[in-house]
């Protein structure tokens, strides 16, 4: 089995223990997609998300376009799963763009294939539920931080949660993600 | 390879190490620097405290050896058995775990952020030694091996040993850092 397929199984296996048969069925659904170059889009606004993606290598940002600005709402890099989640869940046009920040190798599973697995293998559905729970907790914490904390505190929280992010993601996008200007970020964290 | 090209490569390796420390570690909060993934594994600061213990010995020993040698510079690089052995053991590519000598165990070091300051100051010293080395015959000179002083490396080997050993533990510090985030960030990004 491909190394990246084993890693995907590892993500699901981290919380439930899948049988060899379940692992194989999960692995079967995933296929590689054409590589992305920097600035290519994984999904654009108004497209409907029909895939869940796994990032074999590279980094991406999720952003919401508003007037002339783009608000960064999330990042993903090596060994993450990513999708335009509201569109993926409701099967309606995406309000977000997902764009490559570097060259990316990507794998995907079609939503219908993924959901078909749930009927056959409750454990895969359970693992997916737990992955969503963690993502939800992350979103709630982030919302509270944005509403409560000063820019400095928001920066410190990000640093303690994912200090490596400054190695991977350009600063202007981190500033956008933290809802501060690049100038404020430079003041808090000189480059 | 000629010794001048050899020293040039070591200089750029050292510059890369300095860059990694400044960009990737120096700005981290204490909690991350002190985080131990497991009881038996080193925190990021312990990695650097360990390197500082080595540097305290080797930088002085290399400086002393440089003092005693002369030209001609830029010769074909020569190696010794103990030099090759020591360097290959420490190469970051060699994933075999090596046992740490008790006196080099960072368990008794201060392990606060000053370890990073000390490490960076030592890198400046190392750069100066690399510059001095350009003017002499680095195949000569005798630098006693720390754990068994009867054995001696030549100056070029001792410099390379110090740097590959640093690379080894900077890599370890990066691995620790990546592991720290992997525990905390959701895998699913939405």
List the helices and strands and how they pair.
The complex is a heterodimer of chains A (191) and B (190).
Chain A: H1 3-13, H2 20-28, E1 31-32, E2 41-43, E3 51-57, E4 59-66, E5 69-77, E6 81-82, H3 85-90, E7 97-100, E8 105-110, H4 111-120, H5 122-148, H6 151-161, H7 165-168, H8 171-177, H9 182-188
Antiparallel strand pairs in A: 1-8, 2-7, 3-6, 3-8, 4-5, 4-7
Chain B: H1 3-25, H2 30-33, H3 44-68, H4 81-90, H5 114-133, E1 143-145, E2 148-153, H6 155-184, E3 188-189
Antiparallel strand pairs in B: 1-2
Helix pairs in contact in B: 1-5, 1-6, 3-5, 3-6, 4-6
Pfam families (chain A): cNMP_binding (PF00027)
Domain Cyclic nucleotide-binding (chain A): 14-126
Protein name (chain A): Crp/Fnr family transcriptional regulator
Overall pLDDT metric of chain A: 92
Low-confidence stretches of chain A: none
CATH first level of chain B:
Mainly Alpha
- Report strand order across the widest sheet of chain B: 1-2
- Can you give the helix content of chain A as a percent range? 40-55%
Briefly, what CATH class of the domain at 3-117 in chain A? Mainly Beta
Number of domains of chain B: 1
Shape type of chain B: elongated
Number of strand segments of chain B: 3
Helix content of chain B: 55-70%
From N to C, what is the helix and strand string of chain B?
Answer: HHHHHEEHE
Largest sheet of chain A: 4 strands, antiparallel
Number of helices of chain B: 6
